[in-house]
């Protein structure tokens, strides 16, 4: 498939607020990106006309109750079958920040044994508690399964900002180790919080900004086509978005976030 | 309620006739108080006279409508009124005589709409304009900090939506009492500064973050006078295609109420804001604070922008203070129409709300559109698709009369021209000369300790723990963030790149100097203007527009009014002198509590542009070996300074602004930045040269040495501590690579400047005194610890 034939569907509801910059990032790569309100999807947008599905950041439906849960239940109840088919066909799906929370709440991630009826992980309230906006270092951990990071060598350190109050990745206390091993075995761990040199944060604040288990910042499903992450790659797409470009004389053209968008576009070009 | 003044009407809902025709002066004042109108006798008599001519009594909803429309908050009586000066001279409207005059005389071609609408609009680039508004939300925040601050943000965002602009950035400037204020000293009804601080910060963050608008610039200031009067300024910047700025409503257009439902929250918010806070404010005014729902506003925003882009509506305004009563009245007045309303069409949160409450409720997230009949269905569908309610509640008419019906019965009929011609205020102003004196004490030998103490002073210390709770990155357009350098130094201004296909940026900065206001409000105002502009210039901003936001005490007291006059005189002189027109503003008066009046506080917000964001300069030092220049002259101006404050003094030498010098300094900085000679630039403000140098060093991790002997000073200034900590305006520290030495020096030739130091690679700050010995010697870690500890 040619790059310009690729169609990206970005779905928003009341409270979604990172759709425009996500769209901009995809479009910079030459693909077509469309933002639809969930109401429009219900009114007849066929997801299967699109190659990549994105749930952008924000506070879907206000995130009242628990981050992501209302939208997750809503879309799984109403278009769950369509989503499953989309995913089964190997079409990539991306959840950024609130999107990640939605993917977890809907059971699409980690999805060790397929889509689960109940969430198998959680993105809990940050420790230390509270909203935090800032840049973090992320170490790329994936061995090649995740289609969103295939252009990134394993071990490479990325710099991308976070901005959330509920991003502490948690696994059930009882079977935590077991699930973690499964995630590792399946190559589902994609990004871990680290320091500048790529040493894992080991839970230390502020390198690990929210207390996430195993420093996890992003995971994918066992097939590598559904990817959720707390950091915002669309805010690290261009060089002038970097927090320290003024130290470089002039801004570089692009930031590390671009690699994620580029990887998935490359994947779609090859696959379809 | 007293029976003979209030007569319940025989209608199937609750409505009263107010027996104003038989009321004497005492009764009139009683009515004003009991109904929460906050109107004075003259105003009540005017109303009585109006209804006498109509040979009937008003209904409660009519009186409430007048009360809202004539409130200080909605009508700005003080700024529009007559002021009698001690020498007998009269000022016919502070606003016209000073604030708007500067703008009018400057007559900048890039000013598109100033002072007229919900927000000021200036030209940006191509087909786009920038809309800006800054509001205060002090009174509600004093009662309910979270809700008060959150709805302050929500309100100012709606102001920007109210000129059809898409909100792209927020600012917030907050003033609190000292966080360690003694509980025992708090009078009844006043909440502890720490409680207010936590609530306000959470409220600001929650609204901006949830709506997805980056909070990019602001300040936090602590002052004893804010214990009883918290100060909450909320600003919003928006972007709009200028051709979409449509305001041409006419007879027959539908009045469409959009957004959230109407409830009993926010009753009498504006009249409450026009009174002093008292012990009873908590019980009496609790309902005046509204409830925030940012997601509702996020949806509202999407729909409004869609309606704008399709050009389906003929005008728009927000529902803020006064609720429907203000929005409908102002819309009708603006387009020289009348209005006829069916009040029962208003969607309610719950039933059993009296008609007058519906009409003046300040429930949040609502706006009023006027829509021609033909477009009605299309507009309502757009709102429906965003899950937002939109309801036609009436129409504009051609008779100049406001007519309201409820359940089929007429309940109000008021002439619009009457509603907008309240009796003019005449107030007297008095100028009070303060008895202040300059302290004298020996110059300390080691100034390192003083510097560390100032770095830990709450007004100077890092605000990172607060600012990180605001999303300043959402929308992905924040080029210069609130922090810069490895260790998160404080940026002078924020820069936004709002258009994908242009490198042009918007530069947002502010200036606020309450402590000078304790000495001299004229120089306080001048300093705030200078500070806002120099912050903007320091990163590369130019073509600057200003917004003024006054927070003052009760203007009915002549001394408060006198100081307000003085500040306005400064506003005119310096806005004109710097060629920076005011484009919008807002005043919050009556900031008084049992602890006394608020320190006169003027916030100046500066909006500049930068032609290419890739030339923007941050304040952190970049490279060891680079040269450090100071631009601007240092005077012995320590009145109100942080240095005096830590020594327990106020002083009387508040920093002045010398226009010629200031303009030259600013101009040369812009030129040097454009030529690419500047690697870092930081303005000198609280804590003066010493703090600016320390901040540049600690932000970067590099060291820095400064030679005080070289600093250009005015007059006979021979004390190290004065040179280090004087807060003279219009000064900058600039980092320049050695290779540009000559070029830079010839560029800044017109301004006072000197080479005063260089960047070191050893992470230490060394300042050499006038005799060549070090007076300050500290490691970066030490500076960071002091600076980051307090908050």
List the helices and strands and how they pair.
The complex is a heterodimer of chains A (272) and B (791).
Chain A: E1 7-12, H1 19-28, E2 32-37, H2 38-42, E3 52-55, H3 69-88, E4 93-96, H4 98-105, E5 122-124, E6 132-140, E7 157-164, E8 168-170, H5 176-185, E9 189-194, E10 216-220, E11 226-229, H6 257-271
Parallel strand pairs in A: 1-2, 1-3, 3-4, 4-11
Antiparallel strand pairs in A: 5-8, 6-7, 6-9, 9-10, 10-11
Chain B: E1 6-8, E2 16-18, H1 25-34, H2 41-54, H3 60-69, H4 72-75, H5 77-80, E3 82-84, E4 90-92, H6 94-106, E5 111-113, E6 120-125, E7 128-136, H7 138-143, H8 145-161, E8 166-176, H9 193-211, E9 215-222, E10 231-241, E11 254-259, H10 269-273, H11 281-285, H12 294-310, E12 315-318, H13 323-334, E13 338-342, H14 355-360, E14 366-371, H15 376-385, E15 389-397, E16 401-406, E17 409-415, H16 416-419, E18 426-428, H17 448-455, H18 464-467, E19 478-480, E20 483-484, E21 489-490, E22 494-496, E23 505-511, H19 514-517, H20 521-539, E24 542-551, H21 558-578, E25 582-588, E26 592-593, E27 596-597, E28 601-610, E29 627-631, H22 642-647, H23 659-674, E30 680-683, H24 688-700, E31 703-707, H25 720-725, E32 732-736, H26 741-747, E33 753-760, E34 764-768, E35 774-779, H27 780-788
Parallel strand pairs in B: 3-18, 8-9, 13-16, 24-25, 31-34
Antiparallel strand pairs in B: 1-2, 3-4, 5-6, 6-7, 7-10, 8-10, 11-14, 11-15, 12-14, 13-15, 16-17, 19-22, 20-21, 22-23, 23-28, 24-28, 26-27, 29-32, 29-33, 30-32, 31-33, 34-35
Helix percent of chain B reads 25-40%
Percent of residues of chain B in beta strands?
A: 15-25%
Total count of helical runs of at least 4 residues of chain A: 6
CATH superfamily assignment of the domain at 93-244 and 462-610 in chain B?
Answer: PurM-like, N-terminal domain
Which CATH architecture of chain A is right? 3-Layer(aba) Sandwich
Query: Could you give the count of β-strands of chain B?
Result: 35
Q: Which homologous superfamily in CATH is the superfamily of chain A?
A: Class I glutamine amidotransferase (GATase) domain
Unreliable residue stretches of chain B = none
